[in-house]
């Protein structure tokens, strides 16, 4: 994956009704380790890596690049939103487009935080990359992720097999400018 190009970063924190989206900080490192080591979080992502491996490889300030948002709830990291380009994608429909990804700790599941945070990140993206479509890929078996994709305006482009499972590729067309 590549970054989004020349966008201003670190961003001014984005505030929603319950969340703050911001650039990562050193204090987020333990939550990143938990997020990346969680078997529940990685159920549809090929499985979690060993915690000690993640601890060794994790920089002091993790994921500090344009398009990587920490999702903060009550002053604590609870998830991550990722917006990056997909060069060399195995799917021609996704080639070179910005790609939305998200990971949330299990305690935050089912409470609408992913919808709220992703909608805010997409609004930011629409402002800095106006007119660009976005893609989202998830395993077809991940019904919660498919429901979220639909709520965010992604429509199915195709399903295909990769990494030993059926994958779902959705496209979100850019919002039409209001007259």
* Low-pLDDT runs: none
**pLDDT average, as an integer?**
90
Number of helices: 4
The computed structural class is alpha+beta
Spatial arrangement of strands, main beta sheet: 1-2-3-4-5-6-8-7
Summarize, please:
The chain has 179 residues and is of the alpha+beta class.
What's the helix and strand layout?
Elements: E1 14-15, E2 19-22, H1 29-37, H2 51-57, E3 68-73, E4 76-85, E5 98-104, H3 113-128, E6 134-139, H4 143-151, E7 155-162, E8 165-172
Parallel strand pairs: 5-6
Antiparallel strand pairs: 1-2, 2-3, 3-4, 4-5, 6-8, 7-8
Description:
- The chain has 179 residues and is α+β, with helices and mostly antiparallel strands.
- Helices cover 23% and strands 28% of the residues.
- It contains 4 helices and 8 strands.
- The chain has helices at 29-37, 51-57, 113-128, 143-151; strands spanning 14-15, 19-22, 68-73, 76-85, 98-104, 134-139, 155-162, 165-172.
- It has an 8-stranded mixed β-sheet, with helices on both faces.
- It is globular.
- The chain starts with 13 loop residues before the first strand and ends in a 7-residue tail after the last strand.
- The mean pLDDT is 90.
What attributes characterize this protein structure?
about 180 residues, alpha+beta, 4 helices, 8 strands, about 25% helix, about 30% strand
